[in-house]
Design brief:
Length: about 700
C-alpha cells in the first residue's frame, strides 16, 4: 500500500470552541469600548485642538457668541485669528487672548492710544467685544482685561498671532525695532519676546519644509511606487532563491566568520611580536591603570596577548560547535528550503499581511480618535477672581448669572473669568480612567489582530506539512480555511493570549510614564527600582510574545485551548532546545542578509536615479527640492515590504519546525505512523517510511 493506513488527521478539522469565557469577555470589552467611543464623540470637540479660543474659552468665529461678529481675517471667510498678547502677563494673572480679524502691524500701548482718537479706533480691533466705553479710565480697562496693555507687530501662524521676529545682520528685531514699550512706561529689549515666539518660528520653518516635501512627492510619487514594486519583486525572488541558495549562504557566512577570526589571531600575534623589545611595551595592565586615551593600551604587549587569547578561544568554540552541531545546521537549512516550497504552494499567504495591516490601521484610527475626543470633552470652567479678600475667591461661577449673584454684592471687584478646561461631573472625574481603558483596549485589540494573523498562517502552513502527498493532499484554499477555523473556534484562545500580553504592555507603559515623571526626582533608590522593573517587564514581554507565537501554532494544529497549547509548545521546544537555538540564529542571519540586500540595493538604485547619476535616465528623473525625500521613502518602504514578506516566511519556518518536532515524536516510520517530513529531512535524519515510497 502506498497510502498510510492511519492518518494523523492534522491539522485537526473536528474542533470545538476553546476559551469561551475569554471570547465572551472580549465581546463585552468591545461593546464597552464602542460605548466609550460614542460617549467621547458626544462630549468631545476636536476643534479645541485645532481652533484658537479667547480668554473665556470661546472659539474665535463661533456662532452664538460675541466672537461670531469678528470679520474674516486676511480675506479668508470665517477664519479669524486669536491674538496672544504675551506681555499682558506683566499686568494680568494670565495671558490675555482676544479674537481679532487681523494681527497688529505696529507697536502701540493703550496709554498712548487713549489720548488719540485715530489710534484708539485702531486699538478697538484688539479689545474684547465688551469694550464699549472709551471714556473709561485706562487703569480700569486694563484691570478688567478689556484691552491688552500693548500691541506688538505680529504675523499669523496656525490662526494665531505671534511676534514678527526677524534677524538683520545678527540683530534681533521686531517691526524694525530692537526695543518696545511694555505699556507701563518702561522700554524693554525685543529679545525678551524671543522665547515666546521660538516655537512659532519652528512651526513656521516646519510648515515651509513640509510644503517643499509635498512638492517633491507630487513630482516623484510614481517613481517611488516603481521603487517599491522593485522591492516587492526582489523580496519574492529572494524567498524563492532560498530554496536553492540557503545552504550556500549559511556555509559561506560560517566560513567567513572562521576566516575573519583567523586573520584576527594572526594580526594580534604579529602586533605582539612587533612590540618585543620596545621601551614601555612590557608594562602590565594593572601597573598602567585606567587611561582615558585608549590608544595607550595598544602599545602594550599584554593587550595584544589578551586579544590573541580571546580570539583563539572564540575560534576554538566555533569550530567545536560546527563539529558537534553540523547535523542540526543541515536540518535548519533543510527546514528553510522546505519553508520556501511551502510559501510557493500558498502564495496567497504573502498578501495576507495586508489584511493584518488594514485591521491594525482600524485599531489605531479608533484609538486615536477616541483619545482626541476624550481629551477634548472637558468643558470651560470659570472661577471667581478678585484682588481684595473675598470668601468666594476661587469658586466656580457662571458668566451668564454672575452679575446678578450675591458675589458681586459682597465682592464688588470680583470677576467671573475663564480658568481652564475641565469639569466637575462624574464623567469628567473619570476621564483618566476612560483614557486608561482606551489604551488597554488598543493593546488588546492590536495583539488580537496580530494573533489572528499568526494562527491563520500557521494553520495554512501546517496543512502543507501534514499533507502526505504534497501538494495534492492540501485543501483547496488552505489560508481561507485556516482563517475560518481561527475565527469560528479559537477567538477565545486568541483573546486569552492577547489579553495576557496587553496587560504586560500596559504595565510597561505605566512604568515609562512613572519614569518620565521621576526624572527630576532625587530618590536614587526609586529610580533603581523602576529601572529594574522596566527591565523585568521588558524580558517578560519578549518571553510572552515567544510563547504566544508557538502556542498559536499548536492551536492551529490541534485545536486545543491556549493554556494547553502554550504548555505543550513550551515543553516541546525545551526538549529540543539546541535545535531551536540553531534554527533561530540561522533564520535570523538569512532574514538580516535578505533585508540588507533588498533595502541596500533598492536604496542605492534610488540614490543614483534621483541624484541624476544614471546617464540612461538622467533626463527622466524629476527636479527636487530635497533628493533625500523620495530616497528615504523608498528605503523605508522597501524595509517594510521586506519585513512583511519575511514575517510570513518566518512564521512558515516556525510552523514547519514545530510540525517537524511533533512528527518525530508522534511517528516512527511504520505503515500506521509514517513520517510526513520531506525526503531531504528523512535522509538527514536517516529515517525511512517502511513500505512507503519517498513522498
Amino acid at each position: 500500500s502506498v497510502v498510510p493506513k492511519v492518518f494523523p488527521n492534522l491539522p485537526v478539522l473536528s474542533r470545538g470552541c476553546t476559551d469561551i469565557v475569554c471570547c465572551v469577555l472580549l465581546v463585552v470589552a468591545i461593546v464597552g469600548y464602542v460605548v466609550v467611543g460614542v460617549v467621547a464623540w458626544t462630549h468631545g470637540d476636536p476643534r479645541k485642538v485645532i481652533y484658537p479660543t479667547d480668554s473665556r474659552g470661546q472659539f474665535c468665529g463661533q456662532q452664538g457668541t460675541p466672537n461670531d461678529l469678528v470679520p474674516p481675517a486676511r480675506g479668508v471667510p470665517g477664519v479669524p485669528h486669536s491674538i496672544l498678547v504675551v506681555t499682558c502677563s506683566l499686568l494680568c494673572p494670565s495671558p490675555l487672548q482676544i479674537c481679532v480679524s487681523k494681527c497688529p502691524d505696529r507697536y502701540m500701548t493703550y496709554l498712548t492710544a487713549y489720548g488719540n482718537p485715530t489710534s484708539l479706533e485702531y486699538y478697538r480691533d484688539f479689545c474684547t467685544p465688551e469694550f464699549k466705553n472709551a471714556r473709561k479710565a485706562p487703569v480700569e480697562v486694563l484691570k478688567d482685561k478689556e484691552c491688552p496693555a500693548m500691541l506688538i507687530p505680529s504675523t499669523p501662524l496656525a490662526r494665531r498671532c505671534f511676534p514678527a521676529i526677524q534677524a538683520k545682520k545678527g540683530v534681533i528685531m521686531v517691526g524694525n525695532e530692537t526695543t518696545y514699550d511694555d505699556g507701563r512706561g518702561h522700554r524693554r529689549n525685543v529679545t525678551e519676546l524671543l522665547e515666546g515666539a521660538k516655537k512659532a518660528n519652528v512651526v513656521l520653518e516646519a510648515r515651509q519644509l513640509a510644503m517643499k516635501i509635498f512638492e517633491d512627492y507630487t513630482v516623484s510619487w510614481y517613481w517611488i511606487i516603481i521603487g517599491l514594486v522593485i522591492a516587492m519583486v526582489a523580496s519574492l525572488i529572494f524567498i524563492v532563491l532560498l530554496r536553492f541558495l540557503a545552504g550556500i549562504m549559511v556555509w559561506v557566512m560560517i566560513v567567513m566568520v572562521v576566516l575573519v577570526l583567523g586573520y584576527g589571531i594572526f594580526h594580534c600575534y604579529m602586533e605582539y611580536a612587533k612590540l618585543k623589545g620596545e621601551a614601555g611595551s612590557d608594562v602590565s595592565l594593572t601597573d598602567l591603570g585606567f587611561q582615558t586615551d585608549l590608544r595607550v593600551y595598544l602599545h602594550l604587549r599584554q593587550t595584544w596577548l589578551a586579544f590573541l587569547i580571546i580570539l583563539c578561544v572564540l575560534e576554538l568554540v566555533i569550530i567545536l560547535l560546527l563539529i558537534f552541531l553540523r547535523k542540526r545546521i543541515l536540518i535548519a537549512i533543510a527546514l528553510i528550503k522546505e519553508a520556501s516550497r511551502a510559501v510557493g504552494h500558498v502564495m496567497s499567504s504573502l498578501l495576507f499581511p495586508l489584511c493584518t495591516f488594514f485591521l491594525l490601521c482600524l485599531c489605531i484610527a479608533y484609538w486615536a480618535s477616541t483619545a482626541v475626543f476624550l481629551s477634548t470633552s472637558n468643558e470651560a470652567v470659570y472661577k471667581v477672581f478678585n484682588e481684595s479678600a473675598c470668601p468666594f475667591s476661587g469658586q466656580t461661577c457662571h458668566p451668564e448669572t454672575f452679575n446678578t449673584s450675591n458675589v458681586t454684592k459682597l465682592c464688588p471687584d470680583a470677576q467671573c473669568l475663564f480658568a481652564f478646561y475641565g469639569g466637575e461631573t462624574a464623567y469628567h472625574k473619570y476621564l483618566i480612567v476612560l483614557q486608561f481603558f482606551n489604551v488597554f483596549m488598543f493593546f488588546w485589540l492590536a495583539n488580537f489582530v496580530i494573533a489572528l494573523g499568526q494562527v491563520t498562517l500557521a494553520g495554512a502552513f501546517a496543512s502543507y506539512y501534514w499533507a502526505f502527498k504534497k501538494p495534492d493532499d492540501m485543501p483547496a484554499f488552505p489560508l481561507f480555511s485556516a482563517f475560518g477555523r481561527a475565527l469560528r473556534y479559537h477567538t477565545g484562545s486568541l483573546a486569552f493570549g492577547s489579553l495576557v500580553l496587553a496587560i504586560v504592555q500596559v504595565i510597561r507603559v505605566t512604568l515609562e510614564y512613572l519614569d518620565h515623571r521621576l526624572k527630576a526626582a532625587e530618590n536614587k533608590f526609586a529610580k533603581f527600582l523602576l529601572s529594574c522593573l522596566k527591565c523585568c517587564f521588558w524580558c517578560l514581554e519578549k518571553f510572552i510574545k515567544f510563547l504566544n507565537r508557538n502556542a498559536y501554532i499548536m492551536i492551529a494544529i490541534y485545536g486545543t485551548n491556549f493554556c494547553t497549547s502554550a504548555r505543550n509548545a513550551f515543553f516541546l521546544l525545551m526538549r529540543n532546545i539546541i535545535r531551536v537555538a540553531v534554527l533561530d540564529k540561522v533564520t535570523d542571519f538569512l532574514f538580516f542578509l535578505g533585508k540588507l540586500l533588498i533595502v541596500g540595493s533598492v536604496g542605492i538604485l534610488a540614490f543614483f536615479f534621483f541624484t541624476h547619476r544614471i546617464k540612461l535616465v538622467q533626463d527622466t528623473a524629476p527636479p527636487l527640492n530635497y533628493y533625500w525625500v523620495p530616497i528615504l521613502t523608498v528605503i523605508v518602504g522597501s524595509y517594510l515590504i521586506a519585513h512583511g514578506f519575511f514575517s510570513v516566511y518566518g512564521m512558515c519556518v516556525d510552523t514547519l519546525f514545530l510540525c517537524f518536532l511533533e512528527d518525530l515524536e508522534r511517528n516512527d516510520g511504520s505503515a500506521e505512523k509514517p513520517y510526513f517530513m520531506s525526503q531531504n529531512l528523512r535522509k538527514l535524519l536517516k529515517k525511512t517510511n517502511k513500505g512507503q515510497p519517498d513522498a
